[in-house]
Amino acid sequence: MRVFLFLGVALLFTLALADHHEGDHLEMDDHHDHKDNHHKKGEHLVKEHHHQHNESMPCHKIAQYNSKFSFDLYRQVALDHPSENIVFSPVSISTAFAFMSLGAKAQTLSQIIEGIGFNTTEISEQEIHEGFHHLLVLLNDVNRELKLSGGNALFISQEHKILQTFLDEAKKLYHSEAFSTDFKNSEEAKNQINSYVEKNTHGKISELLDSVDRDAIFVLINYIYFKAKWENPFDMEYTKEGDFHVNENKTVKVSFMRRIGFYKVAITDEATVVSISYKGDAGALFILPEKGKLSEMEQNLNTISIYKFKNSLHSRFVDLQFPKFSITGTVNLKETLSKMGIVDVFSDNADLSDITGGANVKISKAVHKAVLNVNEHGTEAAGATALEGTFMMLPTSVKYNRPFIFTVYDLKAKSVLFTGRVFNP
Fold first, then answer.
1. R_g of the chain, CA atoms, integer Å
2. Which helix (H) or strand (E) holds 303?
3. How is the beta sheet containing 147-157 ordered, strand by strand?
4. Sign (positive/negative) of CA torsion 107, 108, 113, 117?
């Protein structure tokens, strides 16, 4: 077995009072203690998926907008971090903000919807929410060959009231669990949230939060977990150490996996692109810019350029060498998304009155963290791969030995799950 492993993405929102009014401190209803069993939730989502199997796919209606947001966000993060590893889940971030839009009004609402890539003259808010609802159904289909799961959780202050209508919509559309939390005991609250994230990211993110706001109204966590096997696995026997050129002045030693076989490849003046499939209707695109063209390519990366690369892919017999790597990425979404037009929700101008019934709430912190491992965990059977091609055919050599861009997508949902840059493996 060869495994391509994406682990642990979590998104944090801490909503704090813009103005502190003691009179607004109301007791919470009993429904905040709701704790769904994860397995039962998965079964429920699978039933929904089979019910919708022969119907149109609502998640496909939001796919093009999610793709646009993926690359808009990537360009901004790449610009802010020109010489670092990058990894994030755009679908996790857009799901969380779409979730938050349930409680937003006026300009705060329009900034969120437009900021995550949607145009409401083309798609309605109802269709957006239905699309994310169905996307979560697909992410939690336990019958798929790959391991893929995602979800949301609200950690709600014991001292503030959240509107029942918001909680009902959160549960109905975004399958959100809700937990009562004592934010006044900040250390206990932090441990409660971190434990939840650790459990749902299979132990790969144990310390999402280093602190919580004692005046928080609630914290929203969104997580996604992905693990899949290569369709055509690498053989550990051929993994060898080699040079990875971080830049003109720095070279590091890394382990390169190697496989000779047929891949879908595009070789242009700008980049070499290889498409690699996973078992279970998922795939990845790895973009290796020509030397000196990384920054230029990143700032021109969008749905059109990706479409052109995909359209240029042809099956080739290649000698593929690819680095094993493990990278971690943290994105300050308050800082990044403010540059992309989502401003008011982080300020005293925020209108999130459909969450609490009052206009005194804003997002004080938004953090996104992802961990990515690409490696091979082998079995003997995986090494017995038949030779592809003939001895008369010389393979084209493709070696990812300098910084490259990647995007991982779910073919069923037609959505980008993860994207990023490997600058130094």
1. 22
2. helix 303-312
3. 177-181, 147-157, 216-229, 3-17, 361-374, 325-332
4. positive
Q: Give the closest residue to 132 by CA, choosing from 173, 88, 184.
A: 173
Q: List per-residue pLDDT tens for the chain, 425 residues long.
A: 233 333 333 445 556 655 444 333 333 333 334 434 444 444 444 444 444 443 468 999 999 999 999 999 999 999 999 999 998 889 989 998 999 899 999 999 999 999 999 999 999 999 999 999 999 888 888 888 877 778 888 888 888 788 899 999 999 998 888 888 898 999 999 999 889 888 888 787 777 788 888 888 888 887 887 878 888 888 888 899 999 999 999 999 999 999 998 999 999 999 999 999 888 888 899 999 999 999 999 999 999 999 999 999 999 999 999 998 888 888 888 899 999 999 998 888 889 889 888 767 888 778 888 877 776 532 222 222 333 444 455 789 999 999 999 998 889 899 998 899 999 98
What span, in angstroms and rounded, lies between the C-alpha atoms of 202 and 12? 18
DSSP codes, 355-383: HHSSS-EEEEEEEEEEEEEE-----GGGG
Tell me which H or E stretch contains 419.
Answer: strand 415-422
Element (H, E) at 151: strand 147-157
Alpha carbons 11 and 268: distance in angstroms, whole number: 36
What is the DSSP pairing of strand 415-422 with strand 271-278? unpaired
Cβ atoms 128, 177 nearer than 8 A: no
33: burial class by Cβ within 10 Å (0-12, 13-18, 19+)?
Answer: exposed
Closest by Cα among 323, 321, 328 to 253: 323
Whether the CB-CB separation of 224 and 149 falls below 8 Å is answered with yes
Inter-residue contact 262 to 316 (CB < 8 Å): yes
Question: What are the backbone dihedrals phi and psi of residue 194, each rounded to the nearest 5 degrees, phi first?
Answer: -60, -35
Residue count of the chain, please give it: 425
In 3D, which of 272, 234, 187, 202 has the Cα closest to residue 377? 234
Structure tokens at 223: 């997580």
Alpha helical stretches, state H, 144-278? 164-174, 186-200
Distances (CA, A) of 198 to 3, 225, 365: 21, 11, 20
Q: Quote the tokens at residue 131.
A: 């699309």
Task: Please give the Cα distance from 43 to 46 (Å, whole number).
Answer: 5
